[in-house]
Design a protein that fits this description.
By secondary structure, this protein is an alpha/beta fold. The strands form four sheets. It has an eight-stranded mixed beta sheet with strand order 7-2-1-8-9-12-13-14, sandwiched between helices. About 45% of the residues lie in helices and about 15% in strands. Helix 4 packs parallel to helix 5 and helix 8 packs parallel to helix 10. It is built from 15 helices and 14 strands.
Length: about 350
């Protein structure tokens, strides 16, 4: 019999905990092929005088981040990341993007060379040349293993409450196509797998700009038609951007959970939307608001808009992306908020697709 596939989870926040619940339940029912014990790396904290790892392992509840939901008993919390990952075949990363590099450096040379990583992280790093570096690229480069991604319209508490939600896996190793779907899914969490990993991940990055624009619309108390226009225009510019900078992606990927679904969700329930709304209503600088509203998180809307603008400027394509450009200039203080609607009114309907490489 072939060795069973072992899985671990790096992270213990809201999203990591809910994914751990799904993974734990699923691998327990796949005992012929999967190792039932799942290690979860937990950054050790003291809660009510006890170690968080001890609380999780005795009560099966993550009282710090998801106190109302029980984990299956085969989830084992450990406070050492190497212990969690060294014997795992699938290493699931569900941590803030700022900790990815340090975790990979700790794990380098201490995990199986054949291990496969999966990033559940929505974010990116800024390259020295201003380029957007996707989280999966960082993991592959620093940990020397292949890395798939899973993103989608999946708010942790809604999945925890068994509300219907969807996720998209961008898989870079055919060996794990079915396995990744089967360990993440639940009766109310639908998972679709595609090999279009770059497109899956970049969609989750670009939607931050559009969510910020939607938040500006909410802050100005514009109507729903205007907000829908922002979402539509933003979706078109997402397609254009991917066609220019990530040629070869499939058009169908944009209509999965990672694309249109995640975009719509983000424009109604997202920290970037919330930040933008407060920015408009209070008139306070973004640098001040981000520490109040999204403490511990980078404001990905403004940051993404800046990095995208750098790339567009290098290509001479700023005028082809009026919404992305306007959001960037509003964040920089170079344009008034009124220009947001003007950018929609004046946008050309000639969609810029120079590569024409989309496949259905």
């Amino acid at each position: 019999m072939a060795d069973k596939i072992a899985t671990c989870i790096i992270g213990s926040g809201n999203w990591a905990t809910i994914i751990a619940r799904n993974v734990g339940r699923n691998v327990a029912s796949m005992s012929n092929t999967m190792e039932p014990k799942v290690f979860m790396y937990v950054y050790e904290e003291i809660v009510d005088g006890r170690k968080l790892t001890d609380i999780i392992n005795t009560t099966h509840i993550n009282v710090k981040y998801m106190p109302d939901f029980e984990l299956p008993p085969n989830i084992v919390a450990v406070d050492d990341i190497v212990t969690a990952a060294r014997d795992s075949d699938i290493i699931i990363f569900a941590i803030p993007p700022t900790f990815v590099s340090s975790c990979c450096k700790t794990l380098l040379g201490k995990v199986k060379p054949t291990a496969h990583a999966v990033s559940l992280i929505k974010g990116f790093e800024r390259g020295d040349d201003g380029q957007i570096i996707l989280i999966s690229q960082i993991i592959m480069r620093q940990l020397k293993v292949s890395c798939s991604v899973m993103v989608g319209c999946n708010l942790a508490h809604e999945i925890a409450n068994d509300n219907f939600a969807e996720g998209t896996v961008g898989c870079r190793d055919q060996k794990y196509y079915r396995v990744l779907r089967d360990i993440f899914k639940s009766p109310t969490f639908r998972v679709v797998v595609t090999e279009d990993a770059d497109c899956v991940e970049i969609c989750s990055t670009l939607r931050n700009i559009i969510a910020f624009a939607a938040g500006c619309s909410d802050g100005m108390e514009l109507n729903e038609n205007t907000k829908a226009g922002i979402i539509r225009r933003g979706f078109l510019e997402m397609l254009q951007f991917v066609d220019v900078f990530y040629p070869g992606c499939r058009m169908g990927t944009f209509f999965e959970a990672c694309g249109i679904s995640d975009l719509v969700t983000s424009c109604y329930a997202n920290r970037n939307r919330k930040l933008a709304e407060a920015f408009v209503k209070t008139g306070k600088p973004l640098s001040e608001l981000e520490h109040i509203l999204i403490s511990g998180h980078e404001p990905l809307g403004p940051v993404t808009a800046e990095l995208v603008h750098i790339l567009l400027k290098k290509k001479g394509l700023v005028d082809k992306f009026p919404l992305f450009t306007t959001v960037y200039k509003i964040c920089m203080g170079d344009l008034p908020l009124t220009r947001l609607v003007e950018s929609l009114c004046q946008a050309s309907e000639d969609i810029f697709h120079p590569q024409h490489t989309f496949q259905l």
